[in-house]
Amino acid sequence: MAKQDELRVNRQIRAREVFLIDENNEKKGVMGFFDALALAEEAGLDLVEISPNANPSVCRIVDYGKFRYQREKRMKENKKVQAQNRVELHEIRMQPKIDVHDLEVKTKAIAEFLQANDKCKVTIRFHGRELAHTELGKVVLDRILEKLTEKEVTFVVDSQAAMEGRNMSMMLSPAKKKN
User: Fold this and answer.
1) Which letter does DSSP use for residue 132 in this model?
2) Which of 2, 58, 144, 170 is the most buried (most CB within 10 A)?
3) Which uninterrupted H or E stretch holds 162?
4) SS3 assignment, position 46
Protein backbone atom coordinates (compact mmCIF):
# COMPACT_ATOMS: atom_id res chain seq x y z
CA MET A 1 0.00 0.00 0.00
CA ALA A 2 1.27 3.52 -0.73
CA LYS A 3 2.64 5.64 2.09
CA GLN A 4 -0.11 8.23 1.67
CA ASP A 5 -2.80 5.56 2.14
CA GLU A 6 -1.42 4.56 5.53
CA LEU A 7 -3.57 5.64 8.44
CA ARG A 8 -2.17 7.15 11.60
CA VAL A 9 -2.36 4.89 14.63
CA ASN A 10 -2.21 5.59 18.38
CA ARG A 11 0.50 8.18 19.14
CA GLN A 12 1.00 9.05 15.44
CA ILE A 13 -2.31 10.95 15.53
CA ARG A 14 -1.71 14.71 15.71
CA ALA A 15 -5.20 16.03 16.54
CA ARG A 16 -6.00 17.52 19.95
CA GLU A 17 -9.67 16.58 19.77
CA VAL A 18 -11.17 13.58 17.99
CA PHE A 19 -14.63 12.26 17.24
CA LEU A 20 -14.49 8.73 18.66
CA ILE A 21 -16.23 5.57 17.47
CA ASP A 22 -15.65 2.63 19.82
CA GLU A 23 -15.09 -1.07 19.09
CA ASN A 24 -18.89 -1.72 19.08
CA ASN A 25 -19.49 0.97 16.41
CA GLU A 26 -21.07 3.29 18.98
CA LYS A 27 -20.39 6.99 18.58
CA LYS A 28 -18.78 8.35 21.76
CA GLY A 29 -18.65 11.92 20.45
CA VAL A 30 -15.93 14.58 20.57
CA MET A 31 -13.25 14.13 23.23
CA GLY A 32 -9.60 14.87 23.85
CA PHE A 33 -7.00 12.76 22.09
CA PHE A 34 -5.45 11.40 25.30
CA ASP A 35 -8.88 10.38 26.66
CA ALA A 36 -9.60 8.48 23.43
CA LEU A 37 -6.16 6.84 23.52
CA ALA A 38 -6.75 5.77 27.12
CA LEU A 39 -10.08 4.15 26.15
CA ALA A 40 -8.34 2.27 23.31
CA GLU A 41 -5.53 1.02 25.55
CA GLU A 42 -8.09 0.01 28.18
CA ALA A 43 -9.86 -2.13 25.57
CA GLY A 44 -6.51 -3.60 24.44
CA LEU A 45 -6.99 -2.25 20.91
CA ASP A 46 -5.61 0.54 18.72
CA LEU A 47 -6.85 4.07 18.09
CA VAL A 48 -6.94 4.54 14.28
CA GLU A 49 -7.52 7.89 12.55
CA ILE A 50 -10.16 7.04 9.92
CA SER A 51 -10.83 10.51 8.55
CA PRO A 52 -7.96 12.93 9.21
CA ASN A 53 -9.46 15.77 7.12
CA ALA A 54 -12.69 15.98 9.12
CA ASN A 55 -13.01 18.62 11.82
CA PRO A 56 -12.50 17.14 14.40
CA SER A 57 -10.78 14.11 12.86
CA VAL A 58 -12.67 10.82 13.18
CA CYS A 59 -10.94 8.03 15.10
CA ARG A 60 -12.00 4.47 15.75
CA ILE A 61 -11.03 1.87 18.31
CA VAL A 62 -10.12 -1.33 16.41
CA ASP A 63 -7.54 -4.08 16.10
CA TYR A 64 -5.31 -2.33 13.53
CA GLY A 65 -3.85 -5.50 11.99
CA LYS A 66 -7.30 -6.98 11.35
CA PHE A 67 -8.62 -3.61 10.14
CA ARG A 68 -5.78 -3.20 7.63
CA TYR A 69 -6.18 -6.78 6.36
CA GLN A 70 -9.92 -6.29 5.73
CA ARG A 71 -9.30 -2.93 4.05
CA GLU A 72 -6.73 -4.43 1.66
CA LYS A 73 -9.07 -7.33 0.92
CA ARG A 74 -11.87 -4.89 0.02
CA MET A 75 -9.53 -2.90 -2.24
CA LYS A 76 -8.42 -6.07 -4.10
CA GLU A 77 -12.04 -7.10 -4.59
CA ASN A 78 -12.90 -3.65 -5.97
CA LYS A 79 -9.97 -3.85 -8.42
CA LYS A 80 -11.14 -7.26 -9.59
CA VAL A 81 -14.68 -5.97 -10.21
CA GLN A 82 -13.33 -2.95 -12.12
CA ALA A 83 -11.18 -5.20 -14.31
CA GLN A 84 -14.20 -7.36 -15.15
CA ASN A 85 -16.30 -4.33 -16.09
CA ARG A 86 -13.65 -2.75 -18.33
CA VAL A 87 -14.58 -2.71 -22.03
CA GLU A 88 -11.85 -2.45 -24.65
CA LEU A 89 -12.21 -0.93 -28.10
CA HIS A 90 -10.72 -2.86 -31.02
CA GLU A 91 -10.48 -1.53 -34.55
CA ILE A 92 -10.65 -3.72 -37.65
CA ARG A 93 -9.49 -2.04 -40.87
CA MET A 94 -10.07 -3.20 -44.42
CA GLN A 95 -10.50 -1.93 -47.97
CA PRO A 96 -13.69 -1.92 -50.04
CA LYS A 97 -12.20 -4.45 -52.50
CA ILE A 98 -11.68 -7.10 -49.81
CA ASP A 99 -11.75 -10.76 -50.88
CA VAL A 100 -14.39 -13.20 -49.60
CA HIS A 101 -11.98 -15.26 -47.48
CA ASP A 102 -10.37 -12.15 -45.98
CA LEU A 103 -13.83 -10.86 -45.12
CA GLU A 104 -14.57 -14.17 -43.35
CA VAL A 105 -11.38 -13.87 -41.29
CA LYS A 106 -12.14 -10.27 -40.32
CA THR A 107 -15.75 -11.14 -39.42
CA LYS A 108 -14.53 -14.01 -37.25
CA ALA A 109 -12.22 -11.62 -35.40
CA ILE A 110 -15.08 -9.14 -34.89
CA ALA A 111 -17.27 -11.94 -33.53
CA GLU A 112 -14.55 -12.97 -31.08
CA PHE A 113 -14.19 -9.39 -29.83
CA LEU A 114 -17.93 -9.01 -29.35
CA GLN A 115 -18.19 -12.35 -27.53
CA ALA A 116 -15.33 -11.24 -25.25
CA ASN A 117 -17.57 -8.27 -24.33
CA ASP A 118 -15.40 -5.70 -26.16
CA LYS A 119 -16.47 -2.95 -28.54
CA CYS A 120 -15.34 -3.08 -32.15
CA LYS A 121 -14.89 -0.28 -34.68
CA VAL A 122 -15.01 -1.52 -38.26
CA THR A 123 -13.25 0.84 -40.67
CA ILE A 124 -13.15 0.76 -44.46
CA ARG A 125 -10.19 2.77 -45.88
CA PHE A 126 -10.55 4.31 -49.31
CA HIS A 127 -7.51 5.02 -51.49
CA GLY A 128 -7.41 7.29 -54.56
CA ARG A 129 -10.31 6.76 -56.95
CA GLU A 130 -12.10 4.43 -54.52
CA LEU A 131 -13.43 7.60 -52.86
CA ALA A 132 -15.75 8.03 -55.85
CA HIS A 133 -17.46 4.74 -54.92
CA THR A 134 -18.10 4.94 -51.18
CA GLU A 135 -21.23 2.81 -51.67
CA LEU A 136 -18.89 -0.20 -52.06
CA GLY A 137 -17.72 0.35 -48.50
CA LYS A 138 -21.32 0.41 -47.29
CA VAL A 139 -21.92 -2.91 -49.07
CA VAL A 140 -18.92 -4.48 -47.29
CA LEU A 141 -20.15 -3.24 -43.89
CA ASP A 142 -23.62 -4.62 -44.60
CA ARG A 143 -22.10 -8.02 -45.51
CA ILE A 144 -20.24 -8.02 -42.20
CA LEU A 145 -23.49 -7.39 -40.32
CA GLU A 146 -25.16 -10.23 -42.26
CA LYS A 147 -22.35 -12.66 -41.47
CA LEU A 148 -22.43 -11.73 -37.77
CA THR A 149 -26.18 -12.41 -37.58
CA GLU A 150 -25.63 -15.74 -39.42
CA LYS A 151 -23.09 -16.69 -36.74
CA GLU A 152 -25.72 -15.77 -34.12
CA VAL A 153 -23.51 -13.17 -32.48
CA THR A 154 -25.51 -10.75 -30.35
CA PHE A 155 -24.45 -7.16 -30.93
CA VAL A 156 -25.75 -3.61 -31.12
CA VAL A 157 -24.80 -1.11 -33.81
CA ASP A 158 -23.74 1.96 -31.82
CA SER A 159 -23.13 4.16 -34.85
CA GLN A 160 -24.20 3.42 -38.40
CA ALA A 161 -21.73 3.51 -41.30
CA ALA A 162 -20.53 7.08 -41.78
CA MET A 163 -17.69 8.77 -43.65
CA GLU A 164 -14.84 10.27 -41.62
CA GLY A 165 -12.45 11.79 -44.13
CA ARG A 166 -11.10 8.91 -46.27
CA ASN A 167 -12.60 6.27 -43.97
CA MET A 168 -16.06 4.86 -43.53
CA SER A 169 -16.64 3.32 -40.13
CA MET A 170 -19.30 1.90 -37.86
CA MET A 171 -19.18 0.99 -34.18
CA LEU A 172 -20.41 -2.34 -32.80
CA SER A 173 -20.80 -3.29 -29.16
CA PRO A 174 -21.92 -6.51 -27.48
CA ALA A 175 -25.60 -6.75 -26.60
CA LYS A 176 -26.39 -6.50 -22.90
CA LYS A 177 -27.03 -9.91 -21.38
CA LYS A 178 -30.30 -10.27 -19.49
CA ASN A 179 -29.82 -11.47 -15.93
Assistant:
1) G
2) 144
3) strand 155-164
4) strand
Q: Mention every residue, 6+ apart, whose C-beta is less than 8 A from residue 153.
A: 111, 114, 115
CB atoms within 10 A of CB 162: 11
In three-state secondary structure terms, 88 is coil
Contact call for residues 157 and 175 (beta carbons, < 8 A): no
Residue count (the chain): 179
pLDDT in tens, 75-115: 999 888 887 777 788 999 999 999 999 999 999 999 999 88
Nearest Cα residue to 93 out of 170, 177, 1, 4: 170
CA-based nearest residue to 171, from 149, 151, 156, 150: 156
Around 137, how many Cα atoms within 13 Å sit in the side-chain half-sphere? 25
Q: Is 161 left (phi over 0), alpha (psi -120 to 50) or beta?
A: beta
Per residue in 51-65, pLDDT (tens digit) is 888 888 899 999 988
d(CA 109, CA 75): 34
Report the alpha-carbon distance of residue 22 to residue 75 in Å, rounded.
24
